[in-house]
């Protein structure tokens, strides 16, 4: 079998608020980042990220975060797509500390990968529930950028 390929599907630019710090727990340092809204653009999907989502993070060590974001995308036709996006972000602890302070860092120095899962009642968007997708992410001070690829 040939190795799978990645096909660009769409991009997400999600606006985020400052993190709500819960603090250190026995499972790591817990943070919640409210998702304020955003835009979805690309060859296979367009729409907007609705306000009200949250990115739940556990910081396992100073350079590694587990990410679990939940939010809803709405298409121009009004279809709604629930997204659960899980992954990790890691990098040198000094650069990760700069990200946490809201500073911009070189995205090539941060490994930020996620695997989104989709759920929808829209017949036109059931294709999202029938494939595996992966994302490459970039964290900016006030937003998260995700390039979403379908694994073929």
For this entry, give a set of tags.
152 residues; mainly beta; Porin; 10-stranded antiparallel beta sheet; 5% helix; 61% strand; globular
Walk me through the topology.
Blueprint: E1 6-16, E2 20-25, E3 28-41, E4 47-49, E5 53-61, E6 64-74, E7 80-90, H1 93-100, E8 111-120, E9 132-140, E10 143-151
Antiparallel strand pairs: 1-3, 1-10, 2-3, 3-4, 3-5, 4-6, 5-6, 6-7, 7-8, 8-9, 9-10
Report on this model:
Belongs to the UPF0311 family. It comes from Phreatobacter cathodiphilus. This is UPF0311 protein C6569_21145. The structure is a single chain. The protein is 5% helix and 61% strand. It has one helix and ten strands, in the order βββββββαβββ. The model has no long low-confidence stretch (mean pLDDT 95). Strands 1, 2, 3, 4, 5, 6, 7, 8, 9 and 10 form a ten-stranded antiparallel sheet that branches. A hairpin with a 5-residue loop joins β6 and β7. The protein has 152 residues and is mainly beta. It has a single domain, classed as Porin, CATH 2.40.160. It is globular and about 45 Å long.
């Amino acid at each position: 079998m040939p190795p799978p390929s990645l096909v660009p599907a769409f991009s997400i630019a999600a606006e985020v608020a400052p993190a709500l710090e819960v603090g250190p727990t026995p499972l790591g340092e817990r943070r919640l980042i409210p998702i304020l809204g955003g835009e979805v653009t690309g060859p296979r999907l367009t729409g907007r990220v609705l306000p009200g989502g949250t990115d739940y993070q556990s910081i396992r060590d100073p350079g590694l975060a587990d990410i679990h974001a939940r939010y809803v995308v709405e298409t121009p036709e009004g279809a709604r797509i629930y997204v659960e996006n899980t992954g990790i972000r890691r990098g040198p602890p000094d650069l990760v500390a700069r990200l946490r302070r809201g500073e911009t860092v070189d995205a090539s120095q941060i490994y930020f990968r996620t695997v989104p899962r989709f759920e929808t009642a829209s017949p036109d968007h059931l294709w999202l529930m029938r494939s595996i997708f992966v994302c490459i992410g970039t964290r900016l001070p006030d937003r998260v950028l995700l390039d979403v690829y379908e694994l073929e």
